[in-house]
Amino acid sequence: SPSSHLHHHPPPAAPPPTFITHHTIALRAMPLPVPTSRLLAAISAAASSTADLRRLSHLLLTPYTPLPPLRCLNTLLMALARHRMLPDMESFASRMPARNLRTYTTLINAYCLAGDLPAAKRHLASLLRAGLAPDSHAYTSFVLGYCRAGLLSHACRVFVLMPLRGCARTVFTYTALLHGLCGAGMVREAVAVFAGMRADGCAPDTHVYATMVHGLCGTGRTGEAEVLLAEAMAEGFEPNVVVYNALIDGYCNAGDLELAVKVYERMDLKGCSANVRTYTELICGFCKSGKVDRAMVLFSRMVEAGLAPNVVTYTALIQGQCNNGQLECAFRMLQSMEATELVPSEWTCSMLIDALCKRGRVGEAQLFLGSLIQKGYRVNEIVYTSLIDGLCKAGKVDAADKLMQKLVSQGFVLDAHTYSSLIDGLCRQKELSQAMLVLDDMMVKGVQPNAVTYTILIDELVRELGSEGSKKILNKMIAAGIKPDVFTYTIFVRSYCHEGRMEDAEHMMVEMVDQGISPNLVTYNTLISGYANLGLASQAFSVFKHMVASRCKPNEESYTALLRLLVKKKSSNNILASSVDIWKIAEMEYLQELLEEVVKLQLLSDIEIYNCFLRSLCRVDRLEETKILLGEMQSANLTPGEDVYTSIIGCCCRLKMPTEALTFLDSMIKSGYLPRIESYRHIICSLCEEGSIKIAKKVLGDMLLEEYNYDEIVWKILIDGLLRKGNAAECLILLSVMEEQDYRPGDALYAKLTGKVSISNDAHEVAQ
């Protein structure tokens, strides 16, 4: 009988029974033909293992077994496709004695998912030769395949073709095309496709809404995403964490952090748990805006929720601390990261090296790089370039050059950015001829200079030879096919302004716009300063108006140029040194006049103008004038910004007026802001210095009621604030206040607080 024949003469390729699942063993022992239900059970059991699937595919189609039903063969084919076992799938399909539409669509879908469109087309041709018509599943597979390959026009053609071929589009078809369009930034086209879904008899589902929300948010159209989401929720759609994360990311990218926090809070109310990505997006948003304390609060919540921060989370916090000048805190975050066995990325390491070099701590940067190599971390060109750039900026060009030569000898491939750093260092040392030799050398080695390289050289040539003397290198840049950027043009605008050639400066502005390059804040400020230095008020204000109309927000430098112009014009003393800080000497009447002039233009909100003026006055410690403008704001029902309050508190503390600072701190909290730990540090240190330890304890106690990261409080206030100033006794007193709130510092931290170890900088400790 067939069964005895199978038992006594097994095929040579059959695997040993001990390696096959019990379902497959049972199959081989059963009288044939095997019932379909048992075959399907065996396929289902084997689907969890690629090895078992491969053995079963060999077993089912052998000369020694009766032909299984096509339904079973297709089920096994789908299992092979799901596991991306394409060679096995192709081999199995070639041995199938018969095929139907499901067979072909399985093959087409598998190859489209794998990005192998030629193979998918080959099976489509076979499908057509078999006299079959492709169904929605086959068409949708091609839409998906073309989208993944970036061939959006082909995907759209298939999408349009479907109803013409009598094939209804499904929600999967729409999801595939919408995802492809949104991923390619073609959100306007995606919105048009989405608008036609219902008319096509296809109702959007969770995936469609999630795709559209993500696409809209990714292009800054978060408001539209919210409207769409509201419509969806009215139809019973419940957003998931992916949809909420898209909204949060959209708001963070637009700088609308408070709206992002509201979405986060809405998640909690709806019972949708935040995940690692939720917290990481918020942390990145707050760090980019300089609000690292808020980011650390979210970091604490994240850890308390049992979520593990990833490399992106830590990198954002490290960058935030570096940007805020809190380098020791950045290295403490690195230590925390390594304690969780996460390996810092090249961006994390280069960021820390760059931060050390910018503060003149090049030796520590070199030590840190050495420590990375000792730990076995991957140190690539990005990390080395950060050190080379730092060495050049510190004036150690010879050391940077030697390091570059060493890297080349070790097989590292240096790019234009690395060479540009060396060229910049040489230009800073006025070694222009040497810089030009480096330019020639990099081109000989096949490294194409970029816009940054040429712009550095043009900048130095302009400084040494004037605007006309740099035209040769500019022409060389254009001849090389490299388009000058906004920085290149701004150098020429600056040069013309210094030479008093304002008409040429204006022409250069027109030329850059004609080339499709929008002037930036530096460009506009340069032109404003050029007119201001010549005493041309109407032209300076005209440029200011044009700048704001172009959606380029003025900063302190913009107002400084206008204020200097006003003071120079009104003052009897015509000699006004450029080195003098105009905000320090300008009389209140001039400040008021400029304020009124700018407000009168009605181009900016009053609050933006007042905030900039207040920050400028606080920077030079003019507290009385600051109070006058604050009074005007309050009369107009305007609330100062968070950064303004921070500036005022810092100003008060520098003037040894901590009690005054406390008043502003209270106003800040009442205005709904969470004060920075830095503000508390200024106040508490000032109070301790004047002996008001009781008030300092109360301030710290009130602070602990807010949601701050306690370790951050210890580091930034107790260690970096009090201990570094030699106030060890006050530090321990305030530590006891924290201990009353059940705070227990780690052993290493406690040793520093009690003076058992020195408070040397953590960057050096990490390097050692």
Describe this protein's structure.
This protein is mostly helical. It contains 45 helices and no strands. The longest helix is centred in the middle third of the chain and has 15 residues, at 451-465. The protein is globular, with a radius of gyration of 34 Å. Residues 1-22 and 24-32 have low confidence and may be disordered.
List the helices and strands and how they pair.
Elements: H1 2-8, H2 22-29, H3 36-46, H4 50-60, H5 70-82, H6 86-95, H7 101-114, H8 117-129, H9 136-148, H10 152-164, H11 171-183, H12 187-195, H13 206-218, H14 222-234, H15 241-253, H16 257-269, H17 276-288, H18 292-304, H19 311-323, H20 327-339, H21 346-358, H22 362-374, H23 381-393, H24 397-409, H25 416-428, H26 432-444, H27 451-465, H28 471-479, H29 486-498, H30 502-514, H31 521-533, H32 537-549, H33 556-570, H34 582-585, H35 588-601, H36 606-619, H37 623-635, H38 642-654, H39 658-670, H40 677-689, H41 693-705, H42 710-722, H43 728-739, H44 747-753, H45 762-767
Keywords: Repeat, Transit peptide
Protein name: Pentacotripeptide-repeat region of PRORP domain-containing protein
GO molecular function: mRNA binding
User: How much beta, percentage-wise?
Assistant: under 5%
- Kindly state the percentage of residues in helix: over 70%
State the end-to-end CA separation. 79 Å
Average pLDDT, to the nearest integer? 88
Number of strands: 0
Major sheet details: none
Contiguous low-pLDDT stretches (5 residues minimum) are 1-22, 24-32
Using the CA coordinates, give the radius of gyration.
34 Å
Shape: globular
Number of helices: 45
Structural class: mainly alpha
